[in-house]
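Priority: medium. Attachment 1 of 2:
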């Protein structure tokens, strides 16, 4: 059984090189679209964990309901 030697790449591929390696030469119908960065999210004063804890406290404070017909 022979082991193949793995070539180490000296630098990362850019998008054009990666596309050419995977799909061959780029045709006229393929173009790269650069998207604008997403806008920053707004700050929320409460986290999901805070909401969960608050909900659990409210559940614990409820009066138990009697089950009807049991």
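Attachment 2 of 2:
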């Amino acid at each position: 059984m022979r082991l193949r030697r793995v070539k180490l790449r000296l630098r990362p591929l850019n998008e054009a090189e990666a596309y050419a390696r995977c799909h061959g030469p780029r045709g006229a119908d393929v173009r790269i679209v650069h998207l604008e960065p997403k806008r920053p999210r707004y700050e929320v004063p409460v986290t999901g964990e805070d909401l969960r804890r608050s909900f659990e406290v409210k559940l614990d404070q409820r009066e138990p309901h009697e089950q009807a017909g049991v």
